[in-house]
Amino acid sequence: MRRNRRGGGHQEFGGSGEDSFVAVVVTKLTGALLFILLLTMVIMALLPKAVDLAAPGASKAAAEARPLRIVTPPDLPEAIAGRPYAVAAAADGGRGPLRWSLDGALPPGLTFDAATGLLKGTPAKGTPQPLHLALRVTDGEALAAGPLRLVVYQSDVPLSTPVWWKPGIPPVPWRAWLDNGVGFLILWLVHLVGMSALAGFERQAAAMDLAIEGDAGAVVAGAGPELAPRRFVLYRAMVRLSTLSAMIGLAAWLWSTRP
Question: Which residues cross the membrane (predicted)?
């Protein structure tokens, strides 16, 4: 507080120059400290932590701690003759590219890739007994081996008719039907339908002959009444012979293709 020299009657309040200088210094120091703190936080975030850095021999020790071994199960998934098959061998450990080998006779249609360890293909036929194979893998230094067992089943899926014209209808198992005697039943039904149709035609022919004779007023000897029965007797014999031949052919085919 100071007095006014001219008036002397009133008082004025104001800060000294020293106080203003101290405030400026404090403000600048505060800003500098904040900048240094922010810069330190950024540097600490960018620097890798010591726990994240692996020791020089850590990777080598880890590889040596995990020896090469085959992890593929000894019993491979079953294969079915006539259907695509694929299974990949797997290994754990090792320190380099793996190279595979498979000892044993594979069924026709299956191949083994030594670079990828992939067993794939379409087996042509089933095997009467399980196949015993030996699987080996190497990384250039270590070698691991293990047994494998493969079973190839013979497909018993019956023959099916193509369904491209009706995709919504499942295929018809003709072979199963024929094995169960449905084929013979169908042939017998066709035979009955044929004989019934011939009987109907014969009745119509007899009625027409009677109508013609009635219109003429006289019966001509040796005409329709004798010729029509002979003709239909021949037709019946042809139907019976066709049915019998078809049944014999079906029986022979089932016998020759039996499993």
Answer: 21-47, 181-201, 237-256
